[in-house]
Amino acid sequence: MAVKPKHRLLRSVSTILLLVLIGLAVVWWQRNWLYDQIRLYGYNPPAAIAQLADDAAMTDNARHLYYINRPELKARNLFSDFCPSGTEQTVVLGCYKGGQRGIYLLDVTNPELAGIKQVTAAHEMLHAAYQRLSKDDRTYIDGLLWDYYDKQLSNETLKQTIDEYKKTEPGELANEMHSIFATQVADLPTALNTYYQRYFKDRSKVIAFYAGYEKAFTSRQQQIKAYDTQLSDWKTQIDTLENALDDSSNVLASQRSELNQQKKSGNYEVYNAGVDSYNKAVNNHNALLERLKDLINRYNEVVKQRNAIAFEEQSLVQSLTAPAAAQ
Predict the structure, then answer these.
(1) pLDDT digit string, tens, across residues 208-243
(2) Residue-wise DSSP of 150-218
(3) pLDDT tens-digit profile of 97-126?
(4) 215-319 belongs to which CATH class?
(5) 72-74 and 102-106 as β-strands: parallel, antiparallel, unpaired?
(6) How far apart are CA 127 and CA 68, in angstroms?
(7) β-bridge mates for residue 103, sequence order
């Protein structure tokens, strides 16, 4: 029986180990591609999910990132089982599971909020995109995002949103800005606009969706603000009239007491001379009272209108708020 020389055996083992190492290196290098093929195998996006990608004008690259996360629309009563609850200042409309493990979107059905699902789908897709950025790309993009935030961002609502993330997710600020700026800011610096072309054929479409549903809130907030300004002014007038009426009542009481005293004492000439003055004071008092009544009626009517608008706004928020998941 022939025996293979030892050095030839070692050479074969070394060759096999080298091939294994090369294979492992290739697998590691192509790990995202391999993972994506597994995630996409046999996957056909539901029509509603594909329509959101169409509506948001996602590029092929963006659709790939979107679909490997197998997005799902979840009804309000189920949404909290998949996504965390918001805070008093924020409402969660969707979430991305790190490691390309899923995207979940709240299935908002209120027609006044049409477009919110498209914006949320794009927002969550961009979280998946951010996670796939190389170290150098992320450093570059983070620099662009922070530069815009520090020097050019003027939208107070977005500033407040980012400030809230500073409290709740301080380590994810750049990640959140990466999604927020792309989907909510129309005019971005050239470098950021160019970068976002990786994900949107026409970013203005998703911006238009955002502007459309945001108006449902801002228009009501502006109405409420106008009502509150008017009510504050009227409240000052009401307080002034009430104080004037109190003073007038005291003066009338004093005059009435004086007239009664003169009449009782038989000083009819003094009494008669004071009657006209007293009656004029009564007429002025009654006129003030009518003005107060009229102003209070108008005040109460505007309060009803203001509260009705506030209720509409609360209803919109409620349609975006999923019940807390059962513990």
Answers:
(1) 999 999 999 899 999 999 999 999 999 999 999 999
(2) HHT---HHHHHHHHHHHHH-GGGHHHHHHHHHHHH-S---HHHHHHHTTTBS-HHHHHHHHHHHHHHHH
(3) 988 789 999 999 999 999 999 999 999 999
(4) mainly alpha
(5) parallel
(6) 13
(7) 96
| CB contact at 8 A, 282 and 252 | yes
Tokens for 304? 């009803």
Distant-in-sequence, close-in-space partners of 83: CB < 8 Å, separation ≥ 6: 74, 92, 94, 95, 104, 106, 322
Could you tell me the two tokens for 77? 């009563």
pLDDT digits (tens, 9 = 90+) for 70-101: 999 999 889 988 987 755 445 689 999 988 78
Question: Which pLDDT value is given to residue 89?
Answer: 47
Answer yes or no: are the C-beta atoms of 224 and 310 closer than 8 Å.
yes
Q: Which residue has the tokens 């800011």?
A: 185
Residue type, position 189, single letter: P
Q: Sketch the domain layout of the chain as residue ranges.
A: 44-212, 215-319
Tokens of 73: 């629309």
0.70 exceeded by pTM: yes
CA dist 3 and 58 (Å) reads 64
pLDDT tens readout for residues 162-172: 988 888 888 89
- Measured distance CA(264)–CA(159) in Å, rounded: 75
Residue 170 has what DSSP assignment?
A: G
